[in-house]
Amino acid sequence: MLKRFYHSFDEVGTDEAGRGCLAGPVTAAALILPEHFKNPLLNDSKQLSESKRDNLKPIIEESALCFGVAHIYPEEIDKINILNASILAMHKAIDQLIGNLKYIIVDGNRFKPYKNVPFECIVKGDGKYMSIAAASVLAKTYRDAYMAELHEEFPMYNWKKNKGYPTLEHREAIREYGITKYHRKSFRQLPEQLTLKL
Asked: Binding of a divalent metal cation: at which residues (predicted)?
């Protein structure tokens, strides 16, 4: 049962998706839920099926007092590294919120101060607190939709299915076709034990 982590009416939950991908953006969402919001299906997005996430997305968007979603793209990820890009995405998502932000709860163990708003990092917070779980669902669904669009441009990598994660299929496609403008060049695209055929 997810807890309501409640400090004030303006508690912000934030989370990101796509940190471990080889291609595509890292995407973050931030939101403020009503004080008495409950949904029995809501959980860490990684624990939910794609259909359940898609069903929850409009419920969360309609229920949230406000929400924001932000992508940080591969070129920026390569410049500032994935940790900084993840935090930047969360900051940009929080930028979109309205109201007097009183407190931020963040999934994971790393964050940088956002203006002067107090914050707390919570390891596996997306499986513990509703506002973080809801943010994780939005981040994941928005990123998945974006990767499905990229799939139409480069179908050989099957991003519609693997979303840019380092699956065997994705890496085999990289071996055959090389990388695209959507790949993160600072990431190790192929394991060291694989050798490219010349």
From this structure: 15-16, 107
